[in-house]
């Protein structure tokens, strides 16, 4: 086998694209967005600011911030056909499959879906970012047997999202917590879903198809779906006192525990550290400590036995659950954030495109002949 024929399993550390969007150093650890450290911007930017930064390479001015937020507000409503789809989908359907299908329907309803001009692409990015919370909030309410809420034009992106889920405006602690969680999840370099989105964009297919590919990838439990699994684990643990026994039994059975470990980060996930602080602050503010305490006890036992630290999904799970998002819809919330990062990468791919076409090392037979 020549060096050119070497297979890199999982494409680990393979550089597939040049990008100006995000940088990760898994040994520090560091995540920077357009040159800004995530720890510096996580609590200082709104989600709207984060999207503007991702798409434009700079933080918006006051005038740009107001105009951008107004554009997004005007785009929040979704067509009745999408809400009808959500209502008619069987309850047994996976929530991420429903989101994926809803985005496909939005693409089918867009007469300019195949417009790949820069302005046309940005229009789609804004529209989808504005509509994702409306779709996911409708999913939450329909699942609970409630009527979907209309978007509230007087509220910002995160506050409106919470309003459409809960039916009430959030207090400042709740709004800030959700806003920061969305910022933290917005972008994470060339992860599996971002790579999938860029591959589809690289074929010159439409924006919606690229986003649908991202949704399909992030649905998996080895990617965004891990957050649902982490919350399910906390519920199985039940109480902090049972955490050590649960971890020991799981490890003895050679089961992997969701929310631990990461392909890139070797010294911890900087987003996880921020979410741990947020989870504790939310527990302190509300007095509802159960799931935070379970998470801490489980983390402690994993550290004692395997020296493995949590990733971003671990403490995000109790944060989102305490904010009122059902366990099986948490990945949908992650997608509601990641649409900003996917869009940035899709726009970058279209602007400097080359078809992504890797090869496979063939390991099957040669020289076979059909019998006469």
Spell out the CATH superfamily of the largest domain: Citrate Synthase, domain 1
Q: How many distinct helices?
A: 16
Strand order within the widest beta sheet? 1-2-3
CATH topology of the largest domain: Citrate Synthase, domain 1
Main beta sheet: 3 strands, antiparallel
Query: What is the CA–CA distance across the termini?
Result: 34 Å
Cα-atom Rg, whole angstroms? 21 Å
Describe the structure.
The chain is mainly alpha-helical. The chain has two domains: 35-220 and 328-351, Citrate Synthase, domain 1, CATH 1.10.580; 226-322, Cytochrome p450-Terp, domain 2. Helix content is 57%, strand content 3%. It contains 16 helices and three strands. The chain has helices at residues 38-41, 47-56, 62-74, 80-88, 95-109, 118-143, 157-166, 172-185, 192-202, 207-218, 226-237, 243-252, 270-286, 290-305, 312-322, 330-351; strands at 22-25, 30-33, 36-37. A three-stranded antiparallel sheet has the order 1-2-3. Helix 9 (192-202) crosses helix 16. The longest helix has 26 residues, at 118-143. It is globular. The two termini are 34 Å apart.
Please sum up the structure shown.
57% of the residues lie in helices and 3% in strands. The chain has 372 residues and is mostly helical. Helix 2 runs parallel beside helix 16 and helix 9 packs across helix 16.
């Amino acid at each position: 086998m020549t060096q050119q024929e070497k297979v890199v399993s999982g494409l680990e550390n393979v550089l597939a694209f040049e990008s100006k969007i995000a940088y990760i150093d898994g040994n520090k650890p560091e995540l920077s967005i357009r040159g800004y450290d995530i720890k510096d911007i996580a609590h200082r930017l709104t989600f709207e600011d984060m999207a503007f930064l991702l798409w434009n390479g700079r933080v918006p001015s006051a005038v740009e911030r107001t105009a951008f937020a107004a554009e997004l507000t005007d785009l929040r409503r979704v067509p009745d056909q999408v809400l009808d789809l959500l209502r008619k989908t069987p309850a047994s359907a996976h929530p991420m499959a429903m989101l994926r299908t809803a985005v496909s329907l939005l693409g089918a309803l867009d007469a300019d879906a195949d417009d790949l001009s820069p302005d046309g692409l940005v229009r789609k990015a804004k529209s989808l970012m504005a509509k994702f919370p409306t779709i996911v909030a409708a999913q939450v309410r329909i699942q609970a047997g409630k009527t979907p809420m209309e978007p509230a034009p007087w509220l910002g992106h995160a506050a409106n999202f919470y309003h459409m889920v809960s039916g009430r405006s959030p207090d400042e602690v709740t709004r800030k917590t959700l806003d920061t969680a969305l910022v933290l999840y917005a972008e994470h370099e060339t992860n599996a879903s971002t790579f999938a989105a860029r591959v589809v964009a690289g074929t010159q297919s439409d924006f919606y198809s690229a986003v649908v590919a991202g949704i399909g990838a992030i649905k998996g439990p080895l990617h965004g779906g891990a957050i649902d699994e982490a919350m399910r684990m906390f519920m199985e643990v039940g109480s902090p006192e049972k955490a050590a026994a649960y971890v020991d039994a799981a490890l003895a059975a050679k089961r992997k525990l969701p929310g631990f470990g990461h392909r890139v980060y070797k010294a911890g996930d900087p987003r996880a550290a921020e979410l741990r602080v947020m989870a504790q602050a939310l527990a302190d503010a509300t007095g509802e400590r159960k799931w935070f305490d379970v998470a801490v006890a489980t983390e402690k036992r994993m550290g004692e036995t395997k020296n493995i630290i949590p990733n971003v999904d671990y403490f995000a799970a109790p944060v989102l659950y305490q904010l009122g998002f059902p366990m099986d819809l948490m990945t949908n919330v992650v997608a509601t954030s990641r649409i900003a990062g996917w869009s940035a990468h899709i726009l970058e791919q279209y602007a400097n495109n080359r078809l992504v076409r890797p090869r496979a090392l063939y390991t099957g037979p040669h020289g076979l002949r059909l019998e006469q």
